[in-house]
Amino acid sequence: MSAANLTPSIPDTFLLLGIPGLEAAHLWISVPVCTMYVVIIVGNCTLLLVIATEPALHRPMCYFLCMLAAIDLGSSACIQPKLLCIFWFQAREINAGACLAQLFFIHSISMTWSGVLLAMALDRYVAICAPLQYNSVFTSRLVAKLCMAALARGMLLMSPCPFLIKRLSFCRGNVIPHTYCEHMAVVNLACGNTIVNQVYGLSAALFVIGGDLLFIGLSYCLIVRAVLRLSSREARIKAFGTCSSHICVILISYTPALFSFFTHRFGHHVSPHIHVILANLYFMLPPLLHPIVYGVRIKAIREGVVRVILRGTVSS
Predict the structure, then answer these.
(1) Disulfide engineering: 273 pairs with which of 21, 65, 196, 267, CB 3.0-4.6 Å?
(2) Per-residue CA distances from 269 to 179, 202, 263, 275 (Å)
(3) pLDDT at 268 over 90
């Protein structure tokens, strides 16, 4: 069928297969997935509660942590309830509008995620390289502006994708071999020329991930240079300690993202279920580990959690 004869058409519903090739194990896989989802909700809600109720934690880095926790809860809510419905009830059907909405929110949230991590790297750079100006530079208003800019960037970059998909003609069925409506998994069901969708999706991902990683790396190069110039060994250790939590979060967030990105684009010999599992780990591991990393490594948050638990015990 020639591209000229194709008219835009999108199915009323799509079918999500879950993890291709592992359908028989879906029920068993749902156990760790459900456990992780519960831990994500409890951990991130606890982090938000502690920061909201502890005046000592009302500072820029903790505001960024609140934004990160909200993003973690949002990304998990976009994927895991439907994923568990597929595993438990074989509820694979999803309305086309809901599919495009899920696609939009999943990818825009992940771009916002990256923007917040970049803002946190900038926060650490100013705190270490210009400590005397930190309180005057990183105000609550600036933190709010940076978070809103990250959110606006993600939403604006992903806004064209649902409309670009609606202009396609779908003649390869409506079965998506995935656990959620991933952009390229949906585009691959279309006939005709999908080069615009592919180029735009790849360009947006490279712009966000590549650009943010570049600036994060640059900020840490400047941080390392500034720290190594400190004369006191204790001061150097303390300076590196203030960055360690953020470095752990960067590794946790970007490692599964890069694995998923490169295996999807270049690992054509990799089994489909590996693609799907890596893609899901990208949206499960960071929300699971973020509150644990900050709860363990930041003393003020750790003590705040203890105080909240003790208050709850006394009141009950």
Answers:
(1) 21
(2) 20, 20, 9, 10
(3) no
What's the confidence (pLDDT) of residue 114? 93
Long-range pairs, 49-52, Cβ under 8 A, ≥24: 49/308, 50/301, 50/304, 50/305, 50/308, 51/301, 51/304
Q: Quick count: other Cβ atoms within 10 Å of Cβ 192?
A: 18
Residue written as token pair 């400590």: 131
Q: Taking the model in full, what pTM does it have?
A: 0.91
Please tell me the distance from the alpha carbon of residue 250 to that of residue 247, in angstroms, as a whole number: 5
Q: Which residues contact 80 (CB under 8 A, 6 or more apart)?
A: 33, 36, 37, 40, 284
- Give the pLDDT confidence score for residue 1 in this predicted structure: 45
Long-range contacts of 214-221 (CB under 8 A, 24+ apart): 215/118, 215/121, 216/117, 216/118, 216/121, 216/250, 219/121, 219/122, 219/124, 219/125, 220/121, 220/125, 220/247
In 3D space, the residue among 118, 116, 128, 115 whose CA is nearest the CA of residue 224 turns out to be 128
Chain segment 195-250, per-residue pLDDT in tens: 999 899 889 988 998 899 999 999 999 988 888 887 778 878 877 777 888 888 88
Report the distance separating Cα 214 and Cα 159, nearest Å: 24
Half-sphere exposure of 316 (CA within 13 A, CB side): 6
Q: What is the C-alpha to C-alpha distance for residues 285 and 256, in angstroms, rounded to an integer? A: 8
pLDDT of 179 reads: 94
Nearest to 1 by CA among 166, 165, 192: 192
